[in-house]
Design goal:
single chain; 517 residues; alpha+beta; seven-stranded mixed sheet; five-stranded parallel sheet; 12 helices
Length: 517
């Protein structure tokens, strides 16, 4: 017999299978010998009150053996002789589009401007060591996309558009821990995600698809009002319908589309800083204990939202036990992001703290669709100048920022290229800094101690989403004026993270396959 039950237990009761099995047996009045196995199918932390609890949903096997597989397995067919579909970009959107095409009997040809996930790691290391940014291989470009080296968080609210569980199962099939099927905020970890990405690539190649690195698309091949392929920087042409999954930082693609008078739309963005606290401080605040998280709780997370001056102010991409990393995609810019390893065991917690930016906030220059893009680039370049024209980042203690004073010193930080004290309140746009200050005061009211000089603001956080949307038909998923072009994922303005990008990639792959048959 199999039963499902939900329990609210103390952290020490959720620490291992034996203690959880004991709790289940007490709840069901069963002897331990009757319970063959317990499987956790949902887990979350309730830290709203002083006593922290773990909410668990179990599948209990009573005198019955559990299945050997904890996740569903998909069989991929040989597509080596099938019709090709071109995918531009090997981020989560492009990779999951490729896997879906394998299922549908189409041959994916994935074109990636950057390097494979392991070679890419060497270029990322050089950003901190020599302050040099390879414009084709960095935190934003390369196999796995921006998510590969920025944490691997798999939480999404885009559940109406596709199956989140299916995406998580595919990750598990390719080496991710089955715990991601259980946790309320699933997370693979930057240290483990590259292996998963490599396994996805192997599945694509072993099934007859292709993944081509160090190859940048420079033009779309057009026949009237139809896209029939792409041309790359080395002059090669790849023929087929095109799934455009370039990610939010492929700004040359946006400029190319604009130059070809291919319809684009401006899209709202969010801009701010990366805020870093000591993790122990966040643990004390969130778990309501001077002892922090103790022995049985994970590094604490937070999520804040507020309104200030008619704009949203909110935390973004929170990384408990994480690191702040340099995420510039070209020289002469400084951009920061956050990441965590699977263990989430660094001494620091960080999150993007950003302000909603709308077209009305910006001075319109040139093409309306690229106004936000120009604004972001100018701010990133200014940040590079303020940081000493290296990858050292301008920074300010949180309390000093709120009080509008330069920090005399800065706390220790996880940001390895280094920090330089800078008056962020003075050179960042006032419509952003004023709202950040107000937001920080509001956050401190609900979490006392959050606004502190122990925390440091690191500039700038500008890659929360694409500044441009490539409009497409809602039914066919094709560009509104060009057949055969499928704008897709975060870079096209239709996703906001790994899972939502993967879902969008699958949806576009389905439509592209249907229209290619």
């Amino acid at each position: 017999m199999i039963k499902e039950i939900s329990l609210r237990v103390l952290p020490q009761e959720a620490v291992n299978e034996a203690s959880m099995k004991a709790a289940v047996c007490r709840e069901l009045s069963l002897s331990r010998s009757d319970v063959t196995a317990v499987r956790v199918i949902k887990r979350s932390i309730d830290a709203r009150q002083r006593q922290v609890y773990i909410n668990l949903t179990f599948r209990v096997f009573i005198n019955e053996e559990p299945p050997t597989n904890e996740f569903q397995h998909i069989e991929y067919q040989d597509v080596s002789r099938c019709k090709p579909i071109i995918i531009v970009g090997a981020g989560p959107c492009g990779l999951f589009a490729a896997l879906k095409l394998l299922e549908l009997g189409m041959k994916p040809i994935v074109i990636e401007r950057g390097k494979d996930v392991h070679e890419r790691k060497k270029d990322i290391a050089q950003i901190s060591r020599s302050h040099s940014v390879n414009p084709e291989s960095n935190y934003c470009f390369g196999e796995g996309g921006a998510g590969a080296y920025s944490d691997g968080k798999l939480f999404t609210r885009s559940k109406k558009r596709g199956s989140v569980e299916r995406i998580l199962n595919i990750f598990c099939q390719h080496g991710a821990s089955p715990s991601i099927l259980v946790d309320a905020h699933p997370h693979i970890g930057t240290d483990r995600l590259p292996r998963v990405i490599e396994n996805i690539r192997k599945t694509i190649i072993n099934s007859g698809g292709e993944v081509i690195f160090n190859t940048r698309m420079t033009a779309l091949l057009r026949r009237g009002e139809e896209i029939v392929g792409i041309q790359t920087a080395d002059g090669k042409e790849f023929i087929g319908s095109v799934i455009l999954a370039t990610g939010h930082s492929a700004r040359d693609v946006y400029r190319y589309l604009a130059s070809e008078h291919i319809a684009l739309e401006s899209k709202g963005i969010a801009v701010g800083v990366r805020l870093e606290h000591p993790q122990v401080l966040i643990d004390r605040i969130r778990y309501h204990s001077s002892n922090g998280r103790g022995l049985y709780l994970p590094a604490a997370e937070y999520s804040f939202t507020a309104q200030s001056g008619g704009r949203g102010v909110y935390s973004f991409c929170m990384c408990p036990g994480g690191f702040v990393v340099p995420a510039a995609s070209t020289p002469e810019q400084v951009v920061v992001n956050g990441m965590s390893s699977a263990a989430r065991n660094s001494p620091w917690a960080n999150a993007g703290m950003v302000v909603e930016v709308q077209d009305a906030d910006l001075i319109v220059r040139g093409a309306q669709s690229l106004t936000s893009l120009s604004f972001l680039e100018s701010l990133e370049h200014l940040c590079w100048q303020q940081g000493g024209m290296r990858q050292t980042a301008p920074a300010q203690r949180m309390g000093d920022f709120v009080q509008k004073r330069l920090s005399a010193s800065l706390p220790e930080s996880s940001y390895t290229p280094g920090l330089v004290s800078s008056p962020l309140h003075d050179w960042m746009p006032e419509f952003i800094t004023e709202r950040l200050r107000d937001g920080f005061r509001q956050f401190d009211k609900v979490s006392r101690g959050f606004l502190t000089d122990e925390a440091v603001l690191i500039g700038v956080e500008t890659r929360t989403s694409s500044p441009v949307r490539i409009p497409r038909d809602a039914e066919s998923m094709q560009h509104i004026t060009l057949k055969g072009l499928y704008p897709c994922g975060e870079g096209a303005g239709y996703a906001g993270g790994i899972v939502s990008a993967a879902i969008d990639g699958e949806l576009c792959a389905e439509k592209a396959a249907l229209n290619t048959i």
